Amino acid sequence: MRNLIIFFRRYFNFFLFLLLEVICIVLVFQKNDFQHTAYINSANQISGKMYEQYNQVEYYLHLTATNDSLVRENSRLRNYLATTFDQFDTASGTHTDTLRRFSDDSLHKLLESKVRKYFYREAKVVNNSVNQDVNYITIHRGRLQGVKPNMGVISSAGVVGVVRSASDNYAVVLSLLSRVRNFGFSARLLRTKEMGNVQWDGGSGMYAVLHDIPRNAKVQKGDTVVTSGFSSFFPPDIPIGYVDSVTVEDKSSTSFNIRLKLATNFYNVEYVYVIENLLKDEQSNLEDSTRANK
Amino acid sequence: MSILLRNIIRFILLLLLQLFVLNKILVGQFVSLYIYMLFILLLPFNLPRPGLMLLGLFTGLTLDMFMNTMGVHAAACVFIAYLRPFIINILSPQGGFETTQKTPSLTSMGSTQFFVYATILVFLHHVVYFTLEVFNMANLLYLLLKIVASTAASLVLVLLYELLFYSKKQ
Description:
Chain A: Residues 125-276 form the Rod shape-determining protein MreC beta-barrel core domain. Chain A: This is Cell shape-determining protein MreC. Chain A: Belongs to the MreC family. The complex is a heterodimer of chains A (294) and B (170). Chain A is of the alpha+beta class and 294 residues long. Chain A is 30% helix and 28% strand. Chain A has 2 domains: 2-37; 42-85 and 98-279, Thrombin, subunit H, CATH 2.40.10.340. Chain A has helices at 2-10, 12-29, 34-37, 45-61, 63-78, 98-102, 106-111, 280-293, and strands spanning 118-128, 134-139, 152-154, 159-166, 171-178, 185-189, 195-199, 207-214, 224-227, 239-247, 255-262, 271-277. Chain A is globular. The termini of chain A are far apart. Residues 32-38 of chain A have low confidence and may be disordered. Chain B is 67% helix and 0% strand. Chain B is an all-alpha fold and 170 residues long. Chain B is built from 7 helices and no strands. The A-B interface holds A 12-13, 16-17, 20-21, 23-28, 30-31, 34, 38, 40-42, 44, 46-47, 50-51, 54, 129-134, 136, 172, 202-205 and B 19-20, 23-27, 29, 32, 49-50, 53-54, 56-57, 60-61, 64-72, 74-75, 78-79, 82, 132-134, 142.
């Protein structure tokens, strides 16, 4: 016994070293429970506040670019306004009755046949990284404002990422710019409807790679790639990027290797929208129960 | 200024520099800039090893908190904090450094010794950090290039910082 104690005292430093390293390694590899257990991340009060302070300076410097993107989006949305459509000349052709879809009063609700599926919340970006292998974006919206893990996040231009964890007032978004296995976005070519999968390959934050587009697809430079709407995170037809180059890796491969220019400029993203899918639980419960019954 | 105050100020300064300057710089796919581990490199000679390691853990976890890396920085910092005394022992002359100065620096160790000391520890830090971060041994070449390129870049920063605060007497 005495020898044991002497042994421990002699190698105390080494054992302390092992203990601390084990703690660190456990922290690294417990990412599966990340959403529930992570307090050591940039969504907590201290780091969130600090990033917010810093962002006030950066925000000012990017004001012009932010304004431009918001104005562009405003003009796009203005085109969907009910008043943009000519109400009187109904005989000359069909047009979408957007009034009913957006109306809130009870009379119109009775007439309403469509169910709201997605709910958008705007959020301010307080921290953003582009130079890591796995990049995160911290936003100033949290549990108290209805942001929960596994919600899709888009900017005014296109897809940004998926919410990974949320504290009371902040949330951490796993950016599209992340080299994580199994982290891809279900995508579709807007023109020809072929399905694929978008992943980031490291390197420049302006580009990503679109996999699994079959060789018989007619892809052209400049084609828009949008979300497929199959995943429960994003509504269909939100831009992800634009085809930049199409190559074939080797002749036996059945799919193209397509390089995308990303729609979102991750270098100066200031405002994002968090998308809540109101029917998500229903969809995933159904899918899970089907899988369990198999 | 007392050693304690000096180190606290250095800690905050390096943390701010790391988070709000270096993390915003995009040099290329292979280069990431890190300078915060200089805090561990510059802790006093006579600090006992458990203290050194605990400070390493604290530094690493602080970085992890801001960068969402969960334990990766902490593992690298504890690793170099543990190995630091060995390196100093190997590099120190007969009497040891402690007799003349209290903290490692260009003046107290001599420029060659300090350069070797910083190179070894920064390199080891990057090895642990990138191995855990990338953790994809299939891509060994990418990992190696990243470690070497980032070590070189970080080392330049470390030496610049040292030269900036270089003084003959302290």
